[in-house]
Amino acid sequence: MKRIFKFLLLALTVLLVVVLYRTFTFKAGAALQVLDREEVSVDPKVLGGAIRYPTISHKAEMIDEEAFAGFHHYLDSVFPLTDSLLEKETINGYSLIYTWKGSDPDLDPLVLMAHQDVVPVEYSTQEQWDFPPFSGSVTDKYIYGRGTLDDKGCLVAIVYAVENLLKSGFKPKRTIYLCFGHDEEISGRDGARIIARTLEERGVRAAMVLDEGGTLSRGIVPGIEKEVALIGTAEKGYISLELSVDLPGGHSSMPEKRTALGILNQALYTLEENPFPERLTPPLEGFVDNVGPELPFIQKMAFANTWLFKPLIYNVYRQSASGAALIHTTQVPTIFQSGVKDNIVPNRAKAVVNYRLLPGDSPEEVLKRSKEIVNDTAVRISVYEDVAIPASPISPYRSEPYERLGSAVRAIYPEAVVSPYLVLGATDGRYFYSISQHVYRFSPFPMEKEDLPRIHGINERVSVQGFENSVSFYATLLKDWGNQ
Ligand SMILES: [Zn+2]
Q1: DSSP states of 281-299 as a string?
Q2: How buried is 450 (Cβ within 10 angstroms: 0-12 exposed, 13-18 middle, 19+ buried)?
Q3: Chain centroid to CA 426: how far?
Q4: Domain assignments of the chain as residue spans, ordered by start
Q5: How far is the CA of 149 from the centre of ligand 1 (A)?
Q6: Digit-coded pLDDT (tens) for 5-44
Q7: How many angstroms separate the alpha carbon of residue 424 from the centre of ligand 1?
Q8: How close is the Cα of 289 to the center of ligand 1, in Å?
Q9: Which CATH number is correct for 45-233+392-483, 3.40.50.2020, 3.40.50.880, 3.40.630.10, 3.40.50.10090?
Q10: What distance in angstroms lies between residue 473's CA and the mean position of ligand 1's atoms?
């Protein structure tokens, strides 16, 4: 008995020593190189002006030609050097490729992306804006309007950075492409997809592609006060499944035991009772490794010892919807249709369930798994509207392009914690894996918790300081990549 007790005590001590050792030696990956911040001259009204063109994405066949043409003309007029010195092509009517030719053809090009289109403003919310959403109003502190955060802010900051570098006489060794799609908000199929295909056909292999998607947040990651730069190294996939049941209904005064509505209801319930298992994918493992060392002691200890505390970590993620979405493939019913009158048993019931896939879960597996779980031949399950997008490949975060990107962030925000991340939504970046394995997603505009609902929401805005910093960020990045 005594020996068992002694043995247990020894085992516990060893465990404690290992856990504490790992906690105290827990440090973020590679040290980032220190880059000098590229100073720029910026007028916030230039972004305000860009907001005034309502380049709204409704449907592919409803493009506002005038708005896009006006926007293109506007870019030419406010960035005259870019207009005259870079080659500009219009792709598929509205998308743009700018080519800034480098002097050394042996260096793989750099691709910077953003999208021109914006989401509509819900009519009923128009009155709640402090300034009309397409006025591009500029105050001492903020630039307001639809598209400032998503994604004209990035687009204008990128071209502004190029304009500043051209003015300073900078000539890149490496070719630089600026790629601006026009339909990101409705899938990017006619814009970014065609741009990527065009570059691929020309034999372009890019050293790095940078699109929107990751954020520079302040106070959003619990336990960390300073800025956290989340660089999206992958994005989730997308599929919806349609479940339908056809069963003769009839008069509600003498119903059959099984009804279309009841069966469908049972199927949805069974799916909900069987969520996808939780797991850490490489972007999240990278997040744990890079953000973990900055956390308060107890959390740091958990993150440093995932081999022991994984259930604890999952529990933390599970607390919020956005956290839970990072660790499993989500499923949620989004459409339910059945019935026309209160005294008729419907012949048909139909529902749609939307899935967002973790890297590693394929659309085919999701369909197969759902059929197995529902396990009822009365329920037909098929892919909704033929859209099945697998999760993107995963761009490596232990790589030179990633580290150089992180260094450019640190040039502007020296204290920032830089970390890989999994992007929950879809970006145009996913089309660019055909020309590069280094596709990253990051927008340099600082975001606080209260800014999150502004994306696609009311009073979308960026700060004047944040805009200037963003131009500086792209200029620093371009100079670093352009020099070597
Ligand atoms: Zn966007």
Answers
A1: -HHHHHHHHHHGGGS-HHH
A2: exposed
A3: 6
A4: 45-233+392-483, 236-389
A5: 8
A6: 888 999 899 989 888 988 988 887 667 888 999 999 999 9
A7: 12
A8: 27
A9: 3.40.630.10
A10: 19
- pTM: predicted TM-score of the whole model, two decimal places: 0.92
Q: What angle do CA 151, 176, 67 make, to 5 degrees?
A: 35
Whether domain 236-389 has CATH 3.30.70.360: the reply is yes
Q: Which of 184, 190, 211, 294 is catalytic?
A: 184
Q: Residues 38, 108, 117, 185: which is the catalytic one?
A: 117
Q: What pLDDT is attached to residue 59?
A: 82
Q: Tally the C-alpha atoms within 13 A of residue 225's C-alpha that lie toward its C-beta.
A: 1
Q: Please report the pLDDT score of residue 458 as a whole number.
A: 95
What is the distance in A from the centroid of ligand 1 to the CA of 135?
A: 20
Q: Is the Cα dihedral 415, 420, 422, 424 positive or negative? A: positive
**Tens of pLDDT, residues 301-331:** 999 998 899 998 898 888 889 899 999 999 9
Residues that place a CB less than 5 A from ion ligand 1: 150-151
Q: Is 117 a catalytic residue?
A: yes
